[in-house]
Every structure is written in structure tokens, then in C-alpha cells.
Amino acid sequence: MEFCSSQHHQTTMSIWKEEFQTFSQAFIDSIRAFCSVHYRNDCEQDCHLGYIIQTKHKQTYVFGETLCRWLSLPNDSLQQLTTLNGKIIKQVDYGLDFFVILTMDGSVYLASSDPCWQTDRKLRWIETGIEKIACGHEHLLLLGSDRRLMAMGWNGLGQTTGTAQHSHRSPVFTGLENVEKIACGWAHSLALTDTGRLYSWGLNESGRLGLNDEMNRNVPSEIEFTGEDDYQIKDFVAGAAHTLFLMKNGALYGCGWNDNGELGSPDFDQFELSPIRLPIENVEAIATGWSYRFTIAFTNDGSCYVWGEFGQDSIRLYHPTRIMADHLSSSWSFSAISSLYFDPPLTFGWCGRKVARLKVKQLNFAQYSQRIQCDPEHDYVSMMVKRFSITSDHSLTFP
User: CATH classification of 7-397, choosing from 3.40.50.2000, 3.30.230.80, 3.40.50.2300, 2.130.10.30?
Assistant: First the structure.
């Protein structure tokens, strides 16, 4: 997940007030960017392991018992990572039992509780000359400044390419060059080249690779889009079992699992083997996570839509559902939207701090529940929602 100056990838400190209540105000004011290490595990439980935080003074800290344990640090307070003193962090991403930090000078560092990564419970230097990183459940992609794509980690499903079972000691070359963008799902990988060609490999159950079959791949295979649309890819994201492709014209396509509404329509099959156009237009930005089954999307008119499976209570929305609230503004972000469903919220990787404060009251999840019916055009589905109602035009309305 790439650190981005876009307003959608920034956050205000107001939604983190409860999480950061033990920090001094001076420290909070000094925060430049941070990452919440938060994922859904193999048992369908949401796990929050802690935070990686960098201040304006180029000092990096970890907070949280689990993350500190990975680094052999005391876990009762903020702990500084002195190895990174003076370095500016460009990206942070994480998998099941590891997190990875990329600094502006192209250096990559990794911490983990898994002995396969050979960290000795310290921050391990991995590589230099790296421009972007992306993590899946147990693997890692590293895009070099020379545009060659490398990979590390478990490879039992082909997610790092080749036939070796794993490559935790050093990166392996995926065979792809001239790469511009990368992403990882639970156990699949994607890369876009400078010629606009999009490749996928790894686990292909339910067609998440978009290759019109369910055969796993251990070599990058090109995804083909058919039809009359303009297939110039702007962005792509990968979830636990689905993949979405955003075109420059605002059209959104997806493939893979759809049982939880991942593809935004109950009219689609349970899963789609090839990219299919989703029922939403003029999309500007999208977000999900390698362990999740939901999507958040902003459109170019400033609207926000959500669909899929959300939150600790597994709320399911089977249509792109517009969030309606008078207090939404242009400063609304992916992180702020996630706070409606997750406690604590998600950062979607390395999240920059927004100076302006959102005038939004923090939701009390334990207090405002009601049972309603949703999807009025498709087999009324009962579900639990938090402090909002869904109208006949698939909109969320806040009191």
C-alpha cells in the first residue's frame, strides 16, 4: 500500500483520539504519518496488532504488544526504532506475521514473528534500490528503481513465481520488467507494465486472477479485457478473493469471489472468472485489503460508495451503496469511511496526516444498532448496521 498525498489516503487525528489517548498532545501534534497493522485472520477474526508511527522529526516508533514482541522491545509504551533515525518512510505494508518498511532512500526493512523470515526478532534489512512494495498474506513484492519486479516469502500457490516452496532469505526475480504498479491479494499478485499490460499470478480459486479459469499460476500471465470499452488501467486492488480494476475513464471491473457482494451485484454469479464491469460509474479512487472482502470507492463528484462484507459483525452490502451525510466534505478519506465499520479504523497502509480536522462525531458501535432490510430490489436481506439506515436507492443516511 503506497503512501499517497491524495486526500483519500490521508487521515485526521480526530478519528484516532481513543486509540492514541495514552500519547501526549505534543507527540500527537508531531505525527507525520502512521500505519495501523490490522487484518482479518484465517479464522475470520479481525486482528489489530498495533501501530508504526513516524514524526515530523524523522523518528519512527512502534506501539502495541505484538509489534514490540516481534522486535524484542518492551511493550508497555511507545518504542523508538533507532535503526530508522533520520530516514523518511515512503511506504509500510504487512502480512500475516510480518511488516515491511520502505524508506525514501530505497531501503527495505522487515520485522516478523515467523522464524522463516530470519529476523532474530530485530528489524532486518532486506534490500536497497527499491521504489515500491506490496504485501499479501505470506508474501512480498518489491519493485526496484530499475523497474524489475522481485518477490519474497511463501510460494506454495505460485504467488512469488517459480517452483521453489519459499524464498525468505533473498528476493527472486519474477521475470517482469518495466513495471509501474503492483498489488497483492491474500495469495495472488498483480503488476502493470509501462505499456499498459496487466499481469496476475498465484492462487486462482474463484477466478481472482481474471484469466477465465481457476488454474493457479506460478508465472505472470496477462489479463485480457474484451469489449468496446477503453481499457486504460489507472489502478487495481486485490482483496482476500477478489480483484478490482479501475480504468482511466472511471469504469470499474472486477473478478473473483462475489458471495459477499465483493463485485457489487447479486445479479452476477457466485464468482466471475474474467473481469466484469461493476454497476458504478465515474470512479476516481478505490481501496480494499488483502484479507478483506469489501471495497470503498470515491467518484469524481465527491461521493463515496461501499459494498461487500464489512466490520466485526460482517455487515454485507450487495450493491455499491452511497454514503449520504450532510457533514461529509472533500476531506473525507478511506480511513474515515472505515471508522464507520471498524474499531479501530483502517489506514490502508502508510497513511499521511491531514491537518484539517473532520467535524464528525465518533460513532459508538455498542449503542446504535437496529435491524433493517436492505437490497429492496433483490431478495430483502436482513443485516445489522451501525447508526445508519439504507434507503431504496441503496444510500446510507446518517442521523
Answer: 2.130.10.30
